Amino acid sequence: MTLIEISLLLFLVLDPFGNLPFVLAVLGKHTNRDYRRAIIREVLLALVLLLAFVLSGDHILRYLNIEQSSLAVAGGVILFLIPIKMTLSLTPKSSRIITRTIRSLCPLRFHSSRVRRPSLQSSS
Predict the structure, then answer these.
(1) What is the crossing angle of helices 3-14 and 16-27, to 10°?
(2) What are φ and ψ of residue 115, in 5° steps?
(3) What local confidence, expressed as pLDDT, does residue 111 receive?
(4) Distance, first Cα to last Cα, the chain
(5) What is the pLDDT of residues 62-72, one digit of tens each?
(6) What pTM was computed for the model?
(7) Is 50 in contact with 9 (CB distance < 8 Å)?
(8) d(CA 83, CA 12)
(9) What is the pLDDT of residue 22?
(10) Is 33:62 a contact under the CB 8 Å cutoff?
(11) Within 10 A of 6 (CB to CB), how many other CB atoms are there?
């Protein structure tokens, strides 16, 4: 991968505009120095993880005997099921089936969704 591709991938993965409300809600009451320190720490951590997977991702996939096309299809299925569950008013049974399917495909996503996040509404 070229540096431009890696930079674009980092930008898309970090989604700075989409994550801005969460960052402001969590770090809004900190001093400027603590705010900058936290932002730099998190961006560097994301960069290290991204570079680690860019450099060793093919080796990991080969070791696990997973083709990139299979991984792309699985990611597409996950990205297809999540918005369906969010937008359609499903019956409880069909909702449970889709939720169970999504949880089995990406368990870490649902483990982290149980963590309470700060409210973005003002407390006035």
Answers:
(1) 50
(2) -75, 135
(3) 46
(4) 49
(5) 999 989 888 88
(6) 0.48
(7) yes
(8) 19
(9) 84
(10) no
(11) 14
